[in-house]
Amino acid sequence: MSRIIGINGSPRINWNCAQALDKALEGAAAAGAEVFRHDLYRLSYTGCRSCFACKRIGSPSFGKCSVQDDLKPVLDDILRADGLILSSPIYFGSDPGVVRSFCERLWFPSHTYSTDGTVAYDRHLTVGLIYTMNVPTDTYYSRFLETEKGMFEEMVGPTQILSITDTLQFEDYSKYASAAFDPDHKRQHHDQVFSNDLERAYEFGKALLG
Ligand SMILES: Cc1cc2nc3c(=O)[nH]c(=O)nc-3n(C[C@H](O)[C@H](O)[C@H](O)COP(=O)(O)O)c2cc1C
Predict the structure, then answer these.
(1) For each of the chain's 210 residues, which pLDDT tens digit applies?
(2) Ligand 1 in reach of 132 Cβ (< 6 A)
(3) Is the beta carbon of 133 within 6 A of some atom in ligand 1?
(4) Which candidate, 72, 65, 78, 18, places its Cα nearest to that of 44?
(5) Whose Cα sits closest to atom 14 in ligand 1?
(6) Which domains does the chain have, with CATH numbers?
(7) What is the C-alpha separation between 136 and 113, in angstroms, rounded?
(8) CA of 10 to the centre of ligand 1 (A)
(9) Does the global pTM surpass 0.85?
């Protein structure tokens, strides 16, 4: 049975990213995969510490992250799996720092500074990236999304992206400084479009491993 690891990259454990991730994992499970979810913000870890143990020629740590913290078992879990689904919010046009630190720890052990593009992972892993964001279209972030896809493809394996836009950020817009948003539009979009986004996430997860 194939295994898919889901990673929630939002600090909120049941909001947009988490709901989309759960739907994608539900889809993957319907397609026959065994699925697991990890929440990055529940873990205590850092980004890459530049120890280079993953590059040490002839060492058992070659191609593996040696930093022993809460992320290590998650990385090990991912490298034993067939698929990875990372669901992350956009923060300031990019990944949240916690997600970026996760990416550094996942990507760097695979990178071998080779001249021919050889990587340490065997690239059996298929990756699905879900990004949720406030803006109405992901074209604002097309360069970031392309770079992210490129890095995952180079270091980890074939990668697809699902964007979910115009998300609801708070339950009650009247309680928070948010003059730039039309609360009625946000609520309506959430009620009418987000359920369809969750369906897209389900299909995305279902199709991930082909
Ligand atoms: C610190 C911070 C920065 C954000 N920056 C952006 C941004 O640059 N562009 C955007 O479209 N949304 C931005 N957002 C909104 C979130 O990406 C969006 O609401 C997302 O769906 C939140 O996911 P969640 O509900 O799972 O936490 C930001 C939110 C926070 C908290």
Answers:
(1) 999 999 999 999 999 999 999 999 999 999 999 999 999 999 999 999 999 999 999 999 999 999 999 999 999 999 999 999 999 999 999 999 999 999 999 999 999 999 998 999 988 899 999 999 999 999 999 999 999 999 999 999 999 999 999 999 999 999 999 999 999 999 999 999 999 999 999 999 999 998
(2) yes
(3) yes
(4) 72
(5) 91
(6) 3-207 (3.40.50.360)
(7) 39
(8) 9
(9) yes
